[in-house]
Amino acid sequence: MDQILYCTNYIKQRVSFKPEVGIILGTGLGMLADKIDIYKTFDYQDLPHFEISTVETHQGKLIFGTLAGKNVVAMQGRFHFYEGYNMQQVTFPVRVMKMLGIKKLFVSNISGGLNPNYNLADIVIIEDHINLQTQNPLTGKNLEEFGPRFPDMIEPYNKQMVNQGYDIGMEAGFAMRKGIYVSVPGPNLETKAEYKFLRMIGADCVGMSTVPEVIVAAHMGLPVFAASIVSDLCYEPKLKKANIKDLLEAAALGEPKLSYIIEKMLT
Questions:
Q1: Residue 238 — φ and ψ, nearest 5°?
Q2: Which helix (H) or strand (E) holds 160?
Q3: CA distances (Å), 44 to each of 56, 88, 92, 221, in order?
């Protein structure tokens, strides 16, 4: 808690406006940051107790500015458990954004499509998740200042925001889905048998992020909207060996659509 307060105060001394909305931009999804009318940018390495993003496609910047008329704070790149950070480190920025005053959290990622009805670059509005991470960010002493010891997770994704984002995408003619996201530790991708297993337990898409941040947001009572771009197809007969170039190309196809949806949701 001392570290969260210290970092929050450090930022408040350098940023004069209060953000209303927090945004986490995942792999290959930095375009939305270009649309922000920037007031102040921090490199993660310059913020006390922030970690450094080691993923090549993550810029590692905390951006303050306005988007669609709203004061926002955006993470251009996130932290992952597979980078060697613990879950408290992974979710530290969400705690700080809450202390800075955000009322809503928008989260984005890319994922592997497990549902055979999914196609590359489809936009999946996440309406529920399965947590297969090996650590939980709420393990340890509960931070009573933020929320209860046993937070309810029956609706971690705000239903109104889910429907709003889906409707906006449908009206724009995008290939839209609502689905269940399963979060795994990574960094390796899954075996054929694991893809089949994940589909059998009810997942529509799979990735290595998002759920830890959503758990912490739910703990703090923050409404969450999360969406994923299908970057590869993980079902037979479409399953093939993945490479980062193909994943980023699929993300690039879906990114303008997801950026459009989030902007419209803010207006």
A1: -85, -15
A2: helix 159-171
A3: 14, 16, 12, 25
Q: How far apart are CA 145 and CA 167, in angstroms?
A: 36
- Above 60 in pLDDT, residue 86? yes
Angstrom distance (rounded) from CA 69 to CA 14: 21
Distance CA 140, CA 144 (A): 12
The domain locations on the chain are: 2-266
Task: Choose among 168, 133, 173: nearest CA to 266.
Answer: 168
CATH superfamily of 2-266: Nucleoside phosphorylase domain (3.40.50.1580)
Bridge partners for 129 per DSSP: 181
The residue behind tokens 């609502």 is: 178
State residue 243's pLDDT score. 87
* Residue whose pair of structure tokens reads 């609706």 in the numeric block: 155
Q: 65 forms bridges with which residues in the sheet? A: 38, 72
DSSP assignment of 79-119 equals --GGGT--HHHHHHHHHHHHHHT-SEEEEEEEEEE-STT--
Contacts of 245 (CB under 8 A, 6+ apart): none
Nearest to 11 by CA among 34, 40, 33, 32: 40
pLDDT tens readout for residues 226-245: 999 999 999 999 999 988 88
Cα radius of gyration (the chain): 17
The model's pLDDT over 143-199, given as tens digits with 9 standing for 90+, comes to 999 999 999 999 999 999 999 999 999 999 999 999 999 999 999 999 999 999 999
The sign of the CA dihedral 59, 64, 66, 67 is positive
DSSP label at residue 2: H
